[in-house]
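3.2 Worked example (two chains)
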Amino acid sequence: MSEETRAVVRDDPENGRYVIELDGRVVGFAEYHMRGGRHFFVHTEVDDDFTGRGLGTQLVKASLDDVRESKGTVVPLCPLFAAYIERHPEYQDLVDEEIMRRIDKSRERKSG
């Protein structure tokens, strides 16, 4: 059995994160904040011992699939989520584009 088939992703809403587990052990998480019905994904981590195995990608995909199933939207502030969505345009419809435009404008003002 490969690691991918043993990996389980689940929502942990009490702690504001999706977790990925291998054999019942949490080896990574994607932190989010809920605001106005949107998942603001802010940070993703995979334990150092498990990096390079595709678990971060699996975590992001499963999280986005879960948000889709619940008819939610996302604001991908985490670079891993943003990059995944850019590489997989089938998830672009989950992104709250208006919020992203506001954030981009705010960042431009601060850097300018």
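3.2.1 Second chain
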Amino acid sequence: MSRKTKTNPAEEEARPRGKKRRFGLSRRERAERFATSFYMFPSLAGVLTFFILPFFVVIYYSLIDDTSSGIFVGIDNFTRLFENSAFKLALRNTGLFSVTAVPLVVVLALALAVLLDANVPYKSTFRTIFLSPMIVPAASVILIWQVLFDFNGVVNSAISFFGGDPVEWLKSDYGYLVVVMLFLWKNIGYNMILFMSALAEIPQDVLEAAQLDGAGAMRTFFRIRLPYLSSTVLFVTILSVINSFKVFREVYLLTGDYPYESLYMLQHYMNNMFERLDYQKLSAAAVVMAIALVIIIAVLFIVENRFGKDVEG
């Protein structure tokens, strides 16, 4: 004889009635997810059409000998790419610029944010001044920089006034410093606002407890503020790395297709290959740049995960 299992009345009462659940979801939840997916479809279709599919096309072009024949050649395009002196120069300059400019813009933006987070006079005025480069169009920025650093520009006029010799700022090694200053001027304000927003989210009771324990300003910053800012530092660093790879626009408008050697960036190389219709070298260079960005961002995530572990715990 089979026995009927006794059920607890409380369990019977707790069971949902009138709605069948499939895969752990009720009909209403499935309907809501379907509606959400329907509204997300245009955005997903746009990302797929204009970002994901073109990237796979670029990977395909980097592995064939020509777009007309489509013969698979493996890594031959990448081998020839790393044997190209122009590409190696562009890769070195882009990497050196990122290594120099990104730490500068992150550290300076954080320092300004900490300074303005204190009770300093004219705080809103300083914020406006540092954010003003964001509202200036790129063409106007280039015009300002050309007026300043042209051979007959304002800076050389000031140097001549004090008895110095004019400098070819954009046609010498000094051009690298000019572009670094331009990058800092364009990006430091936005990064500063991000840091100020993160500083405002730090629990005040933690800071007050540190003050009662006798912790100084430097110890409070490095042991309390900085760990709480780790996720923002990661975001700002990633954003700055991406912007450092996009500095080609300003350099191109300042110096043209073939700038001085120290200003020849990866995007210059890819732009010149596009004009020559050499899609294989262009695609291989784009894949190399994408891989470099992925590696850099992955390393930043690993560092942030270890650094911010104490705060999350």
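3.3 Remarks
The chain is about 70% helix and 0% strand.
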